[in-house]
Design brief:
Layout lengths: L1 H10 L1 H40 L16 H10 L6 E10 L5 E11 L18 E5 H7 L6 E7 L18 E12 L17 E6 H7 L3
Parallel strand pairs: 2-6, 3-5
Antiparallel strand pairs: 1-2, 1-4, 3-6, 4-5
Length: 216
């Protein structure tokens, strides 16, 4: 039997070598696919953690609003930490030596307890202060202490996708803010409810002040 095997190897060595090379290539491809799959899973998990931090449950009412007291009621009823947020769309402007404008900015009105969902962040924004995520601060070319303008779309029955006349005071509100903090991605700077790997332009301001500005 061994002589037959050796004879086969001598006469068909090219065929056996091709089979061996094919098996090695297949093993390499499968191993690479498994490694890439693990890497993709890790990346998606990392992006999800940056978007949501320690947040476990979210209730989004889209263009409808609820009383901020609901958060306090949930805290009491569920014995869990809850906070309210006012999420609007707007644009950010840096009126520096060279005017820079960023559209499609997510304007997030938050209370100080929102930052409890981000590890190691304690932030209490004054009415004239804003915290920008890294992506927005980079686009505007601003640092802590600089001033920016935020023009926020007032909520209405009109769809968000409908054209907005940003020059109309009836549809938007503009105000200047001092940049209090540049929020890192790991500090909920990438906060978003959209399952996307593309980071948003986030501007965080005081919720009560934002409500007053848009007359809610």
């Amino acid at each position: 039997m061994s002589s037959l095997v050796l004879s086969s190897l001598r006469h068909y060595w090219r065929t056996h070598l091709g089979v061996l090379a094919g098996a090695m290539l297949t093993s390499a491809v499968l191993t690479g696919a498994l490694l890439v799959g693990d890497s993709v899973d890790h990346s998606l998990r990392t992006f999800a953690m940056m978007r949501l931090g320690d947040i476990e449950h979210v209730t989004s009412t889209r263009n409808q609003f609820f009383d901020q007291a609901l958060a306090a009621e949930l805290n009491q009823e569920l014995d869990a930490h809850a906070t309210s947020m006012l999420h609007l769309r707007g644009m950010a402007i840096n009126q520096g030596a060279e005017r820079i404008q960023v559209n499609q900015v997510e304007v997030l009105g938050v209370d100080s307890d929102f930052w409890q969902f981000a590890e190691g962040v304690g932030l209490d924004l004054a009415p004239n202060e804003a915290a920008l995520n890294v992506k927005l601060a980079t686009a505007l070319q601003v640092e802590v202490g600089d001033e920016i303008s935020l023009r926020v779309a007032k909520p209405s029955l009109m769809s968000r996708d409908a054209p907005l006349s940003w020059s109309s005071d009836e549809r938007s509100k503009r105000r200047r803010y001092t940049v209090r903090k540049i929020v890192a991605d790991t500090e909920l700077g990438r906060f978003s409810l959209a399952p996307s790997q593309i980071g948003p332009y986030n501007a965080f301001i005081d919720r009560a002040f934002l409500q007053e500005q848009v007359e809610l």
